[in-house]
Design goal:
Number of strands: 5
Radius of gyration: 15 Å
Bound molecules: FE2/S2 (inorganic) cluster
CATH architecture of the largest domain: Roll
Distance between the termini: 28 Å
Strand content: 5-15%
Helix content: 25-40%
Shape: globular
Low-confidence stretches: none
CATH topology of the largest domain: Ubiquitin-like (UB roll)
CATH class of the largest domain: Alpha Beta
Structural class: alpha+beta
Mean pLDDT: 96
Length: 153
């Protein structure tokens, strides 16, 4: 079941009945996508599959066959953060960070599709994502700031 993860082809050594999230966090060693609810209710596990946000907790690993998966590990690095990550840092948009990898990936997908979204469009895109720290307002402002700065996410 080969697929492309952050630009590199991989064939994870995992049961074909496993979820994509289990493959990412297990054999592929990518701990950015998080396990929250396991039931498509929190968004902590969201990654991009061929550019679209999906719940990796409830997606079989076989659904990624031959496709392109993107996780927060492919978005930026500590030395070269993605503009979204810079805006989140500047506005301190988050506390514990548990929700942020899913939110960053959903935001990146939004800005690719709609480079200058309205506040309502940001809120709609992030609606499936829970932030238990209550940082939602700062998160929305950070996405808008990244958009203002002209992110080609
Ligand atoms: S862990 Fe996937 S939506 Fe909550
Ligand atoms: S920053 Fe803690 S859950 Fe969002």
């Amino acid at each position: 079941m080969p697929f492309i993860i952050n630009g590199t082809e991989v064939t994870p050594d995992i049961d074909p009945d496993a979820t994509l999230l289990a493959a990412l966090r297990g054999p592929l060693g990518l701990s950015g996508p998080r396990f929250g609810c396991g039931a498509e209710q929190c968004g902590a596990c969201v990654v991009l599959l061929d550019g679209a946000p999906i719940f990796a907790c409830n997606t079989p690993v076989t659904a990624a066959n031959g496709k392109r998966v993107e996780t927060v590990e492919g978005l930026g690095t500590p030395d070269a953060p993605h503009p979204l990550q810079r805006a989140f840092l500047e506005l301190q948009a988050g506390q514990c960070g548990y929700c942020l990898s899913g939110i960053l990936m959903a935001s990146a997908a939004l800005l690719r599709r709609v480079p200058r979204p309205t506040e309502a469009q940001v809120k709609e895109a992030l609606d499936p994502h829970l932030c238990r720290c209550g940082a939602q307002n700062r998160i929305v402002r950070a996405v808008l700031r990244a958009a203002e700065q002209g992110v080609a996410a």
